[in-house]
Design goal:
The chain contains three helices and twelve strands; from the N terminus they run βββββββαβββββαα. The protein is an alpha+beta fold. The protein is globular and about 40 Å long. The two termini are 23 Å apart.
Length: 171
């Protein structure tokens, strides 16, 4: 069981949308492909931001669609930490950002969540904030320096059915 600290510093601010480089996406049917750039923010502006504090570092959250489900975000982060730690691994979560949006696509498919390793950004489809448990496993793979193992498939297929665990062993 992981220790949880309460959500800190919830404030409402407006920020310009983020531009991202896409490398990993997770849809309802499995992994996504790669493309050169993420689509622009559907709203162009963010309207809610806050922090989910964990024992492994703070995760910054920005929502483009109003108030995100903070309880799901906290619970999902804790579940990710438990799952990663159960594999005797550790990943620093400081600097990870989550964007809750009404749009998540790339690689030619819709998705519930997508991880952008170069920017340490997770896009979570609104209503599916629990997807960060899965996306944080992609982050952990990159934090562990496993991005080139098995031709990059270890991190791209992290925690996917028929993919890999954090030792890059088949699951």
């Amino acid at each position: 069981m992981t220790a949880r600290r309460p959500i800190a510093h919830l404030t409402r601010i407006t920020l310009a949308a983020l531009s991202l480089v896409v490398t990993i996406g997770c849809g309802g049917s499995g992994g996504g492909g790669s493309s050169d750039a993420a689509p622009p923010s559907p709203t162009g502006l963010s309207n809610v931001s806050g922090t989910v504090s964990t024992q492994w570092g703070d995760i910054r959250v920005t929502s483009e669609v109003g108030e995100p489900n903070w309880a799901k975000l906290e619970q999902s982060a804790d579940q990710a930490i438990s799952r990663i730690a159960s594999q005797d691994k550790y990943a620093n979560l400081s600097g990870v950002r989550v964007v809750v949006s009404n749009e998540c696509s790339g690689g030619g498919q819709q998705c519930y969540g997508r991880y952008y390793p170069g920017d340490k950004i997770i896009v979570a489809l609104a209503g599916y904030e629990n997807v960060i448990e899965h996306e944080l496993q992609h982050h952990a793979c990159h934090e562990l320096g496993l991005g080139n193992v098995r031709g990059g498939e270890c991190c791209r297929l992290q925690d996917h059915s028929g993919g890999y665990d954090l030792s890059c062993s088949s699951v």
